[in-house]
UniProtKB/TrEMBL annotation:
Pfam families: 7tm_4. It comes from Gulo gulo. It is found in: Cell membrane. The lineage of its organism: Eukaryota, Metazoa, Chordata, Craniata, Vertebrata. The chain crosses the membrane at residues 27-50, 62-82, 102-120, 141-164, 200-229, 241-260, 272-292. GO terms for cellular component: plasma membrane. Putative odorant or sperm cell receptor. Keywords: Cell membrane, G-protein coupled receptor, Glycoprotein, Membrane, Olfaction, Receptor, Sensory transduction, Transducer, Transmembrane, Transmembrane helix. The keyword Transmembrane helix applies. Belongs to the G-protein coupled receptor 1 family. It is a multi-pass membrane protein. It comes from the Eukaryota. This is Olfactory receptor.
Length: 312
């Protein structure tokens, strides 16, 4: 880190759970259960989409990568969160903090891009069915997934390098339970104007813009659904898309509120509540909305159980 006036910070203190007192024990077990459900559920989706030939469509190709990113995304934050809940005064070194910030940005941006690609896949399948196999061929799907990871790597690298080069002297208490961009920027000893502008640009490019594109895609899908003659056909298409839309609204809704409002006057408690939702709660819903509400996935699950568990 750059040197400034005063003593350079050698560790940060995370104060996110300092006010919970006796509730930290129950919160630890609650977060642990949510984390295990997230790991097991998303791992099951990856296994099913790899093992069952019926789940070989572009939608499940994207879903497999989305589940993998969800596992990595939560693993970047939740294990450290669990350790901090057990610690009396949780601290983290600057190097570890910036490393976690890098991976948090990488997987968060990749998740935003993958959700956008999944929305485009549903748009192509429902609104352009005759051109679907051309639009969503294997090369196009691989390119979309690769671009999602590449955008995450580029964004995470540039933001981490910028923050890592800022001087941190004196104040070392982060009023958050994770090393996110805005809480860390508040501690810098130099001007953070470029960081604020960069964070706003990041939010517009990878939160607001994908959110608007997804809403536009589902607007076209809704118009197409209303044009379907039979009510059974409308229910089938709506059931396919509603689960994805639920995840999108929960993830992008909390992310938009957290990163698009003026951060200097924002409530620290509200920041932590929103961060808890999009880092811990939302990834848990992914396995439920994509399995319990999806007949193809539940059918693949039954076939897998019959093949490996109940077979003679």
């Amino acid at each position: 880190m750059g040197a400034g006036n005063g003593t350079a910070v050698t560790e940060f203190v995370l104060l996110g759970f300092s006010g919970f007192g006796s509730l930290r024990g129950p919160l630890f077990w609650g977060v642990l259960c949510i984390y295990l459900v997230t790991l097991l559920g998303n791992s099951l989706i990856i296994l099913l989409t790899l093992a069952d030939p019926a789940l070989n469509s572009p939608m499940y190709f994207f879903l497999r990568h989305f589940s993998m990113v969800e596992i990595l995304y939560t693993t970047t934050t939740v294990p450290r969160m669990l350790a901090d809940l057990l610690a009396s005064c949780p601290t983290i070194s600057p190097a570890s903090c910036f490393t976690r910030l890098y991976f948090f940005a990488l997987f968060g941006i990749a998740e935003c891009c993958l959700l956008t690609a999944m929305a485009y896949d549903r748009y192509a399948a429902i609104c352009r069915p005759l051109r679907y196999t051309t639009l969503m061929n294997q090369g196009a799907c691989v390119s979309m997934v690769g671009a999602s990871y590449l955008m995450g790597i580029i964004t995470g690298t540039t933001h981490s390098i910028f923050i890592f080069t800022l001087p941190f002297c004196g104040a070392n208490t982060i009023h958050h339970f994770l090393c996110d961009i805005l809480p860390v920027l508040r501690l810098a000893s130099a001007s953070t104007f470029r960081g604020e502008v960069g964070n706003l640009a990041l939010a517009i490019a990878f939160i607001l813009t994908p959110f608007l594109l997804i809403i536009a895609s589902y607007g076209c899908i809704l118009a197409t659904i209303l044009g379907i003659a039979t009510s059974q056909g409308r229910r089938k298409v709506f059931s396919t898309c509603s689960s994805h839309l639920f995840v999108v609204m929960l993830f992008f809704g909390t992310g938009t509120v957290a990163y698009m409002r003026p951060w200097a006057g924002s409530s620290q408690d509200m920041d932590q509540i929103l961060a808890f939702i999009y880092t811990v709660v939302t990834p848990m819903f992914n396995p439920f909305v994509y399995t319990l509400r999806n007949k193809e996935v539940t059918g693949a699950m039954r076939r897998l159980v019959k093949r490996y568990i109940w077979s003679p």
